[in-house]
Amino acid sequence: MAETLSVDIIIVLAIIITFLFALIVGYFIGKSKGKSTTAQELEKVEQEFKHYKETVSCHFGKTADLIDNLTHCYKEVFDHLSSSAKELLTDEQLNQHIQSRENKTVTLTYLSNEDNSIISKTIKEQETREKGIELLAEVAEKVTEINDKR
Asked: pLDDT value at position 51?
């Protein structure tokens, strides 16, 4: 009977040791697979973020180009209106139009250099905005570079 007891104890100990060994091996196998999945998810998120930053950078570049085009077109329209007004209207008609638009935000100026200074100021303000947009695009590129290094 003592012999069967020691055999039973050995069998129980073998089962317990095998069970603990299986738990430890299973834990480490599961942990390594979990890291692999997490690493893949991290890589996916990093790629999406990189794509987003590139999209933002392209957006600011395109916006700056469009504002340049808009400014150029605005100046062409203004020049056309100015030259047409000089050709088609009398001095009295020009003065009437200027006076009727005197209190408005956007005015047609086509008589003197003083009036042209308003347009010059508007163009300079537009150029300042464009420089700001270019600066934003540069900042976006720098942020992209810094984040890429991480």
From this structure: 92
